[in-house]
Design goal:
Blueprint: H1 2-20, H2 22-38, H3 48-53, H4 78-91, H5 93-126, H6 130-135
Length: 136
Protein backbone atom coordinates (compact mmCIF):
# COMPACT_ATOMS: atom_id res chain seq x y z
CA UNK A 1 0.00 0.00 0.00
CA UNK A 2 2.84 2.42 0.87
CA UNK A 3 4.55 1.88 -2.50
CA UNK A 4 1.31 2.57 -4.35
CA UNK A 5 0.73 5.70 -2.28
CA UNK A 6 4.26 6.99 -2.91
CA UNK A 7 3.93 6.25 -6.62
CA UNK A 8 0.63 8.11 -6.73
CA UNK A 9 2.05 11.07 -4.83
CA UNK A 10 5.09 11.14 -7.10
CA UNK A 11 2.91 11.09 -10.21
CA UNK A 12 0.79 13.92 -8.79
CA UNK A 13 3.94 15.89 -7.98
CA UNK A 14 5.30 15.37 -11.51
CA UNK A 15 1.96 16.33 -13.04
CA UNK A 16 1.83 19.48 -10.92
CA UNK A 17 5.42 20.39 -11.88
CA UNK A 18 4.66 19.82 -15.57
CA UNK A 19 1.50 21.91 -15.32
CA UNK A 20 3.38 24.80 -13.73
CA UNK A 21 6.07 24.67 -16.41
CA UNK A 22 3.75 24.02 -19.33
CA UNK A 23 4.55 27.21 -21.24
CA UNK A 24 8.31 26.73 -20.89
CA UNK A 25 8.05 23.12 -22.09
CA UNK A 26 5.97 24.15 -25.10
CA UNK A 27 8.47 26.89 -25.94
CA UNK A 28 11.39 24.45 -25.76
CA UNK A 29 9.48 21.94 -27.88
CA UNK A 30 8.96 24.64 -30.52
CA UNK A 31 12.69 25.52 -30.39
CA UNK A 32 13.63 21.84 -30.73
CA UNK A 33 11.34 21.33 -33.72
CA UNK A 34 12.68 24.47 -35.39
CA UNK A 35 16.24 23.23 -34.92
CA UNK A 36 15.42 19.77 -36.31
CA UNK A 37 13.98 21.31 -39.48
CA UNK A 38 17.28 23.14 -40.05
CA UNK A 39 19.35 19.93 -39.96
CA UNK A 40 20.35 18.04 -43.07
CA UNK A 41 18.74 15.53 -43.18
CA UNK A 42 15.94 16.78 -40.94
CA UNK A 43 15.45 14.77 -37.76
CA UNK A 44 12.15 13.54 -36.41
CA UNK A 45 10.05 16.29 -34.87
CA UNK A 46 8.15 15.84 -31.64
CA UNK A 47 4.48 16.44 -31.04
CA UNK A 48 3.13 17.76 -27.75
CA UNK A 49 1.21 14.52 -27.24
CA UNK A 50 4.44 12.48 -27.49
CA UNK A 51 6.24 14.67 -24.96
CA UNK A 52 3.40 14.37 -22.47
CA UNK A 53 3.36 10.57 -22.84
CA UNK A 54 7.06 10.17 -21.96
CA UNK A 55 7.10 8.75 -18.46
CA UNK A 56 10.82 8.22 -17.96
CA UNK A 57 13.95 10.00 -19.15
CA UNK A 58 15.10 6.71 -20.72
CA UNK A 59 12.19 7.01 -23.15
CA UNK A 60 13.63 10.28 -24.45
CA UNK A 61 15.80 8.93 -27.27
CA UNK A 62 16.43 12.34 -28.83
CA UNK A 63 20.18 11.89 -29.00
CA UNK A 64 19.95 8.62 -30.92
CA UNK A 65 19.41 10.56 -34.16
CA UNK A 66 22.92 12.04 -34.07
CA UNK A 67 24.81 10.78 -37.12
CA UNK A 68 28.18 12.32 -36.32
CA UNK A 69 31.00 10.67 -34.38
CA UNK A 70 32.33 13.43 -32.16
CA UNK A 71 34.82 11.27 -30.28
CA UNK A 72 37.64 12.22 -32.67
CA UNK A 73 37.09 15.97 -32.52
CA UNK A 74 39.99 17.96 -31.00
CA UNK A 75 37.88 19.16 -28.09
CA UNK A 76 36.84 15.58 -27.23
CA UNK A 77 40.41 14.31 -26.77
CA UNK A 78 42.04 14.37 -23.30
CA UNK A 79 44.76 16.75 -24.53
CA UNK A 80 42.05 19.05 -25.86
CA UNK A 81 40.32 18.99 -22.48
CA UNK A 82 43.53 19.99 -20.74
CA UNK A 83 44.19 22.73 -23.27
CA UNK A 84 40.69 24.16 -22.89
CA UNK A 85 40.93 24.04 -19.09
CA UNK A 86 44.26 25.86 -19.22
CA UNK A 87 42.86 28.48 -21.61
CA UNK A 88 39.84 29.19 -19.40
CA UNK A 89 41.98 29.29 -16.27
CA UNK A 90 44.30 31.83 -17.88
CA UNK A 91 41.41 33.90 -19.26
CA UNK A 92 39.86 34.13 -15.78
CA UNK A 93 43.03 35.19 -13.96
CA UNK A 94 42.46 38.93 -14.37
CA UNK A 95 38.96 38.59 -12.96
CA UNK A 96 40.40 36.65 -10.01
CA UNK A 97 43.09 39.29 -9.45
CA UNK A 98 40.46 42.05 -9.43
CA UNK A 99 38.35 40.07 -6.97
CA UNK A 100 41.35 39.44 -4.70
CA UNK A 101 42.19 43.17 -4.73
CA UNK A 102 38.65 43.80 -3.53
CA UNK A 103 38.89 41.13 -0.82
CA UNK A 104 42.32 42.36 0.38
CA UNK A 105 40.76 45.76 1.08
CA UNK A 106 38.05 44.07 3.15
CA UNK A 107 40.59 42.07 5.17
CA UNK A 108 42.79 45.13 5.77
CA UNK A 109 39.77 47.14 6.94
CA UNK A 110 38.69 44.30 9.23
CA UNK A 111 42.16 44.03 10.78
CA UNK A 112 42.32 47.79 11.35
CA UNK A 113 38.81 47.92 12.87
CA UNK A 114 39.56 44.90 15.09
CA UNK A 115 42.78 46.53 16.33
CA UNK A 116 40.94 49.78 17.16
CA UNK A 117 38.19 47.85 18.93
CA UNK A 118 40.67 45.84 21.03
CA UNK A 119 42.56 49.02 22.01
CA UNK A 120 39.27 50.64 23.03
CA UNK A 121 38.20 47.60 25.10
CA UNK A 122 41.64 47.35 26.73
CA UNK A 123 41.49 50.98 27.83
CA UNK A 124 37.89 50.60 29.02
CA UNK A 125 38.60 47.47 31.12
CA UNK A 126 42.04 48.62 32.37
CA UNK A 127 40.53 50.73 35.15
CA UNK A 128 38.33 47.95 36.59
CA UNK A 129 40.51 44.85 35.92
CA UNK A 130 44.12 45.30 34.73
CA UNK A 131 44.69 41.52 34.35
CA UNK A 132 41.81 41.13 31.87
CA UNK A 133 42.98 44.28 30.10
CA UNK A 134 46.43 42.70 29.71
CA UNK A 135 44.80 39.61 28.13
CA UNK A 136 42.83 41.79 25.71
Amino acid sequence: MTTICIGYKLRKHIAKALQSRLQAIRSELHSYNTATRALTPPCQQLEWKEVVEYAFLADFDLLHDICQDISHRPWAMPAGHLEMDLYYNISCTQEEIDWLDFEVCHVATYIHDEDCYLDYMENKVHVSDPHIAHQI
